[in-house]
Amino acid sequence: MLDDIDRRLLRQLQADPAQSVGDLAEAARIPLAGAYKRLEKLQTTGILRGQRAVIDWRALGFEVEVSLRITIDKTNPRAFDEFLAQARKVPEVIEIQTFLGRVDARLKIIARDLAAYQQLYRDSILTLPHMADIEALMQVASLKHSMSYPL
């Protein structure tokens, strides 16, 4: 599916997603027109889903980051969907992941400080429907955060 040229393009994008297509073509050692065509192919096939900004939430004053591991009470057939729909509405929930196993979902939450987190937890998290169990893991440090993988 991917050839060496596609891999070179993806490696260059992982290294610097903000670079121009011209710089990308040069670094991948392919003609500019070829870079455009290949990037379009990678996008239409769904391999390249886009580019995004990575925000340092602490630099914006969000000092608390918490992962909540949630187990859903699945006695209601719509429980999972109803829980996810309500969790998506909480602005401080910046990531939602679902799992197979004892834990059904993980919510990544940011808050300005502990008092703000406690208020958010009481007012918005504990009111989410169909939760059977919740475990909070407060982040102390982020030791590795990589959006790239060797291709």
Radius of gyration using CA atoms only:
20 Å
Task: Please state the average pLDDT score.
Answer: 93
- Helical/strand content category: alpha+beta
In terms of per-residue confidence, which ranges show pLDDT below 50 for 5 or more consecutive residues?
A: none
Q: In percent, how much strand structure appears in the residues? A: 15-25%
Into which percent range does the helicity of residues fall? 25-40%
**N to C succession of SSEs:** HHHEHEEHE
Q: Give me the number of helical elements.
A: 5
Query: Which of globular, elongated, flat, extended, rod-shaped describes the shape?
Result: elongated
Largest sheet geometry: 4 strands, antiparallel
Oligomer: single chain
Structure characterization notes:
It contains five helices and four strands, in the order αααβαββαβ. It is of the alpha+beta class. 36% of the residues lie in helices and 20% in strands. The mean pLDDT is 93. α1 crosses α2 and α2 (21-28) crosses α3. The protein has helices at 4-15, 21-28, 32-44, 79-88, 114-125; strands at residues 64-72, 93-98, 105-111, 131-138.
